[in-house]
Specification:
A hairpin with a 2-residue loop joins β17 and β18. Helices cover about 25% and strands about 30% of the residues. Strands 13-16-15-14-17-18 form a 6-stranded antiparallel barrel. Strands 3-2-1-4-7 form a 5-stranded parallel sheet, sandwiched between helices. It contains 7 helices and 18 strands. The chain has 3 domains: about 180 residues, HUPs (Rossmann fold), CATH 3.40.50; about 60 residues, SH3 type barrels; about 80 residues, Translation factors (Elongation Factor Tu (Ef-tu), domain 3, Beta Barrel). The longest helix has 21 residues.
Length: about 350
């Protein structure tokens, strides 16, 4: 019987997960690969499965396919479209990481007797906390704040200290795998092929003209349908007599209106979050942190006060632009991920 430690690698069909499998084999692990069917695009699945099988065949490890489309529909896709109906701006990857990539995948790893689970995420971990990746341009810690802390002790991220160009260069040097180095980057949201409005439009009437109002409630223009807007957007609606650029400040789904205001009125300093997930315990009632309110935003210092309802009150030292309901507010200590919650 082999005494090698067994690891299940999430195989997406891309260069990152494929090179992660390679590195784990070189480190002496017994590797098993798994592709999860999540979205409804069967042609994409077929292509990705074929690429994963090529990689597995080349390196000599088993490759499994898991159909998790029902679970994805229930826990990721449906909450995503319903959030837009409610005038919010959801972040589906954070739900997928919790329930599927580090939930359902871990359960399958148990069925195979795999002690560890690995992915091609650019992130570091010590088994207790996540830390930002060495390649800051590819860091994915923001999307992992909602992972159950119990899962961390078995996670491996082989690309933690790698940079993307070096990953591609390594793949390109292997003739049988060179195709991985030149293929297009995968979409940030796997089930959105063009624009999120196209997805929402399959379920709700998104082309429904409504009123644009100012902060006092006065009608000053028209928009194409409230689900087509997010907080901070400044185009796609018409206003009359505006003397300066106006940005979406609020979305009012019940009345199909959007509230617009000058840019300085779309900044916010204090807000609440719900469903807080933390990687340390017992947490103090209050703690200082660096806070990121969108993936591409910089971290800003602030105070987090935990509430009895499982949420928190966040007060930033300086106001931040376009804080949107249902986006994640993620807490850091330097490059250490402390946790986060969903903006109310």
């Amino acid at each position: 019987m082999s005494d090698k430690k067994k690891v299940l690698v999430a195989m997406s069909g891309g260069v990152d997960s494929s090179m992660s499998a390679k590195l784990l084999l070189e480190q002496g692990y017994e590797v098993h690969g798994a592709y999860m069917k999540l979205h409804p695009f069967e042609e994409k699945h077929a292509a990705n499965i074929e690429k994963g099988r090529k990689v597995a065949a080349y390196f000599g490890f088993t490759h499994h396919v898991l159909d998790k489309r029902d679970e994805f529909l229930q826990k990721v896709y449906t909450p995503f479209i319903n959030a837009y109906k409610d005038g919010k701006t959801p972040n589906p990857c954070t739900f997928c990481n919790r329930h599927l990539k580090f939930g359902a995948l871990a359960e399958f790893a148990d069925s195979l007797g795999c002690e560890y689970v690995a992915t091609g995420h650019y992130i570091q971990t010590d088994g207790r906390f996540f830390y930002e990746a060495v390649d800051s341009s590819k860091d994915q810690s923001y999307f992992l704040f909602n992972v159950r802390k119990e899962a961390l002790k078995r996670l491996i991220f082989p690309l933690a200290a790698w940079r993307k160009p070096d990953v591609k260069k390594t793949a390109a040097a292997i003739p049988e795998l060179a195709f991985l180095a030149t293929q297009r980057e995968s979409a940030e949201i796997c089930f959105v092929e063009t624009d999120y409005v196209d997805i929402i439009g399959k379920h709700f009437e998104v082309e429904r003209e409504g009123e644009v109002v100012d902060e006092s409630g006065k009608t000053i223009g028209a928009h194409k349908g409230y689900m087509q807007y997010t907080i901070g957007k400044r185009r796609g609606f018409t206003v009359s007599g505006a003397k300066e650029p106006l940005y979406v400040q609020k979305i009012l789904p019940e009345s199909n209106k959007i509230v617009v205001a000058p840019k300085d009125r779309v900044y916010q300093k204090a807000f609440d979050v719900e469903n807080v997930n933390l990687f340390f315990e017992p947490p103090p009632k209050e703690f200082r942190a660096l806070i990121k309110v969108r993936y591409r935003n910089d971290k800003k210092p602030g105070l987090v006060t935990l509430l009895d309802n499982g949420g928190a009150r966040v007060v930033l030292d300086e106001p931040e632009f376009a804080i949107a309901s249902a986006q994640a507010a993620v807490f850091y200590e330097d490059n250490k991920l402390l946790g986060g919650g969903y903006i109310v």
